[in-house]
Each structure stands twice: as structure tokens, then as C-alpha cells.
Amino acid sequence: MATDTLKSSAGAGGASGPGGLRRLLLDNGALTALIVLVVALSALSGDFLTADNLLNIGVQAAVTAILAFGVTFVIVSAGIDLSVGSVAALSATVLAWSATSEGVPVVLAVVLAVATGVVCGLVNGFLISYGKLPPFIATLAMLSVARGLSLVISQGSPIAFPESVSHLGDTLGGWLPVPVLVMVVMGLITAFVLGRTYLGRSMYAIGGNEEAARLSGLRVKKQKLAIYALSGLFAAAAGIVLASRLSSAQPQAAQGYELDAIAAVVIGGASLAGGTGKASGTLIGALILAVLRNGLNLLSVSAFWQQVVIGVVIALAVLLDTVRRKAGATPVGAGGGGSKGKQTVTYLLAAVVAAAVVGATSLLHSGSSTAAQQKVGLSLSTLNNPFFVQIRAGAEAEAKKLGVDLTVTDAQNDASQQANQLQNFTSEGLSSIIVNPVDSDAAGPSVRAANQAGIPVVGVDRGVNKAETAALVASDNVEGGKLGAEALAEKLGGRGTIVILQGQAGTSASRERGAGFAEGLKAYPGIKVVAKQPADFDRTKGLDVMTNLLQAHPDIDGVFAENDEMALGAIKALGSKAGTSVQVVGFDGTPDGLKAVEAGTLYASVAQQPTELGRIAVDNALRAAEGEKVSATVKVPVKVVTKQNVTDFKG
After folding, report:
1. What is the distance between the alpha carbons of residues 101 and 146, in angstroms, rounded to a whole number?
2. Residue 393 in 3-state DSSP?
3. How open is the CA angle 513-518-523, to the nearest 5 degrees?
4. How many Cα atoms occupy the beta-carbon half-sphere of 371 within 13 Å?
5. Is residue 49 within 8 Å of 362, Cβ to Cβ?
6. Cα–Cα distance, 115 to 112 (Å, whole number)
């Protein structure tokens, strides 16, 4: 059921006896794995098997599942589609841009978004069928093109989603999430196409043996056009649902989701060699990924270890498929009539087991008492940046001092993943939540849900839009940008040419620092900005981008980088010029940045005291949880650190 419908070549022993049970488990490996996960996580966490959390899991699985349904068509036909995440982001961006900036009626904007996904899919299909490009190469190219177009259309900034479409991220009757309904509908459509249509049968035939399918009269090229167009259509639907959840179209949304979609299909039992796969298996694969992430969040497992666990699960899924086939099970392809009854029995068995788990775990946790210790959740935009690592360190030190149970999660600069983490915190019923938003608009819906649950939320470093926060603990990024402009301009004597290394497109930190720098530079008309390029707050990208810019502008006098990591990459590219003929100013005051200031290669860093941000955020979160009045805004001063005062600075 979760994998292909299988028949045993060992005979018709049925599902009776130990051998029959072994056969049942092997033939339904993904479903078995899902049940085992639910049992284990229910036993480990009393917060897992609640109605709110189960609905959270459904919502968190929805986008991946919808993408995976589209990818199922491609994988069944022995293809691959790496572009679905970027196509989802592009479709959502087209909808938001056309409906808001261009004044297109919302209904027509939705049609344009869906058409965008279909066109991207058709281009993929054309390149593969008629251009003879390998699917990997064709869809990899579309991944880049679609993401680039999304950034071009949005100018790198999130676009507010039309309210009439944003209702797709809401609930019906106050409890049933619309994304779950959309997921179910798309799953039923997938099952119908695969099992009941000529196109579906063609997919299995092409995946089983493309040459044999062609010789039997199947128009393989035209079928592939339709298959990839369907994948693009489902990607567009997933993009619209995702943007609805976040109330904004994020140009950087759904990065890496294509890998999750492929993983869900493979975990569900489809073969990357083609010819096998089912909608039910794909759904269960997506649920397994969602259950894993949700459960590991509830158990406070590090986000880095979560990636390791999910990779192991994917490997085990493929290994199980190999074991299953060696055990004598052979795929029936699109399904056979005799297998329907076995599927029904398996579903019923799964339902009985699930019901038993619900009963057992409710008894297990019914007598547990709530701990007196306050529990606080901290969702950081990323832990791949020393600045946010320092915020975590400050928060953890203060939590230990105050006796607070602090859970820290890493959103990996993914607004959707952060929304999931905030939902998990809310379903756990934490005392309070601290959030460092990936995007201020995208965090709004999840923070509003916490508001409704009566959980106070504290923002750190960045604010949350259209939601209530008990306090915002932050440095002034705009003011910091102005100070950076002033420091660089005065060092250059008010004259010269400079380049700017921008942060990740769409993040509020990049927008605010850039705006502050531009504002501060107005007082120095002799300073000319000759180039601006994003380097995504990353040191390696800072090195590469700076190296490229030096080819076009070898005689620049200065560099402003919107964080220290990019500044350090720029220093590496400049070599002996850094600190001598070219002055570099960074932002954040990270340990490595301050070492470069002390060495003289980095002229200055606009330091934010991140450990103080983390410490003060925990203190305010605890006070808000205990009902004390806290200040709406707590400003931690920024400071320009140069070689003259670096020894006095305490980060």
C-alpha cells in the first residue's frame, strides 16, 4: 500500500502466520515505519499525540506532499525533477506580484501562477523529449532560471500575499487546516491519474521500459511533455499553499524542497529506476518526514542531528526496498485487482494499531504532572552564522542561570521551516517563545497562533509584523548601517569608489542595513557606489563575489559588507590590499571579525553585542511568562569597533 502493490512469488500463503506477518511488514515498509515512529514518539513525548500537534504535522507535511505528488509522476516514468522548489517560489511570486503591484484581479493572478508552473514543466519536458537533455540537467537548469526570475520579479524582497488567497493557509471551522484539505485533494487526483487514466498507464510503461513503450505505439515524447507539465502544475499549487501559510511570497522560499519531495517518493516505495510508485506511498513518505521533524523538535534534538536522522531514514527506505525484493516480492506496476482487498485489510490493520497507540499513550501520559520549571522556545533564523551562535550562547547562559528549560531550533533561513517550529512550540504549550524571524512578515501567522494560545512571544534582533510581541530585543540595523557609512566615508576622507556586499535577498537585516548605509552615505557625495552584489551573508560567497567584482573594478577604495562573514571573504579576495589601499567595514562584531579588526585587515565592524541580545531576550521572555510588565522595545546599543577600541569591546 505504501509502496507498490506486491505479490509474493513464494506462493499464496496470505498474511496468516509468522511468515505472513513478515510479508505484510515487508510489503508495506513505509506504513510500518510510520506506525513505529508514531508509537516511539508518543511514548517519548506527551506533547506528540495531541489533536493540535497531529494537525500541525498535517500542515507541515502538506507542501512537501503536494510537491511530491507531482514528482511521483516524473519518477514513475523514470525521470527526475529538481526544479519543483524553485517553480513553487516563482509561481507564488507571480501571483503576489501580479495581484498587488500590477493590480491584476486575484482570480486571474491565480490562473497566471498556475500557468507559470505548467509552462516551466512544459519547458522541462521539451528539453528532455525533443532537446535530448538528461532530466537531471534540464531540471537543474530550470531550478536556477525559476529562482532567478523569482528574485528579479520581487527585487529580492517578500511580497504580501492577497488576503483572499491567504485563506488557503487558514482553518475551516477553527480547527481543520485548509492546507491539509488541499493535500488530500491533490493526493486523490494523483491516485486517479496513476490508476485510472491512459496517461497514468503510460507513465508506468515508460518507466518500465521506454523503448518497449515506444515500439508498442506509445507517443513517448508527448507523454513526457504532459508528465512534466503535471509536475509543474503541482509545484505551482504547493507554492500557493506555502505562500498562503506565510502570508507573503518569499523569493527564496522552498529552497531544497525538491530533495524532500524526492525523498518522500522514495521513502514511499517508488524506485528511481522507474515503473513503480503510488500516491498513497508518497503521502506516507511525506508524513514520515513531517513526523520525524516534528517529533525531534518536541524532543529538543539539534537541527543538525535532524538532518543526519532524515538522511539515515532515506537510506534505510532504499535498503528496505532491496530486502523486500530479495525476499521474493515482485512489483505489479500500477496495481492489480486482486491487491485491492489486501490494501483495504492493511489500511484497517494500520487504523487498529493507531487506535491502540492512542489509547496506550494517553494512559501513559495521563498521570504526568506539569513541571514547575518554565519552558521557553528559541527559534533562530540560522545557526550557520557566528552572530546567531553567539545569541544562542547568551540565551543558554541566561537560561541556565535562571533555571529555565530552553529549547533552541535552527530554521536554516527557511521561513516555512521556522513557521513549523513555532507551531510545534505552540502545541507544546511552552511558557513563552523567543523568535529571531527569517522574515518579519512570514513569522506573523505563526506568532498570531501563539497569541491566540496565550503564549507571550519575544522578538530578538528582528521584529514580527502583523502580530503581537511582548517585547522586541534588538539592535538598530538602520542606525548601524548609517554608522558603517560614516566610518567608511571618514576613513576615505569623503571621496572614493566603493562596492557593497549585500546579505541574503529578502531578509529584513539585509534590507535595513542596506537602507541605513544608503541613508548615511547621502552626507558624503564624494563617495560613489560602483557595484552592489548579494553574497548571502556567507564567507565563501563573499570571497567569490569580491573576486569577481575586482575584475571589473580593480581600483576601488572601500567595501561595505552587511555582515562580518562576507567582509572576511572580501578581505581574503583583496589580499594585501585589505587595510592598506582598500578599507573594509563589516557588521555584527563576531569573534573572527574582531580578530581581523585587531589585525588591521578589517577597518571596522558595527558590533551588535549578540550575547547581550540572547541574554536580555531570555530575561524578558521569563518575565512575560510570569505576567510581569516588560518594555515593548529593548534596544541594545550598536558600536563601531576599530583597532583603537577593539580591546575594550566585550561581545
Report:
1. 20
2. helix
3. 130
4. 12
5. yes
6. 5
Query: Would you say 81 and 228 are in contact if contact means Cβ atoms under 8 Å apart?
Result: yes
Dist. CA 554–CA 549, nearest whole Å: 8
589 pLDDT above the threshold of 60: yes
Cell of 147: 529562482
| pLDDT for the residue 319 | 76
State pLDDT tens for residues 41-54. Answer: 888 888 888 888 89
Please state, in angstroms and rounded to a whole number, the distance separating the CA atoms of residues 97 and 111. Answer: 13
- Name beta bridge partners: 248: 160
Q: Categorize the per-residue pLDDT at 287 as very low, low, confident or very high, splitting at 50, 70 and 90.
A: very high
- The DSSP secondary-structure symbol of 101 reads I
Please check whether residue 177 is in contact with residue 60, taking contact to mean a CB–CB distance below 8 angstroms: no
The pLDDT of residue 331 is above 60: no
Q: What is the residue-averaged pLDDT of the chain?
A: 87
DSSP H helices in 130-219: 135-154, 163-166, 178-196, 198-208, 210-215
Q: Is the dihedral of CA 563, 564, 565, 566 positive or negative?
A: positive
5 has a pLDDT exceeding 60: no
* Side chain identity at residue 458, one-letter code: V
Cα diameter, the chain: 88
Q: Tell me which residue has cell 486571474.
A: 108
d(CA 122, CA 142): 11
Q: φ and ψ at 408, to 5 degrees?
A: -110, 130
* Nearest one of 635, 614, 642, 613 to 479, comparing CA atoms: 635
Secondary-structure percent of the chain, ordered helix, strand, coil, rounded to 5: 60, 10, 30
Q: Cell numbers 523503448 label which residue?
A: 211
**C-alpha angle 512/518/523, rounded to 5°?**
135
Q: How many CB atoms lie within 10 A of CB 491?
A: 16
User: pLDDT band for position 2 (50/70/90)?
Assistant: very low
56: pLDDT strictly greater than 70: yes
Q: Which residues neighbour 127 within 8 Å (Cβ) at sequence distance 6 or greater?
A: 133, 138, 141
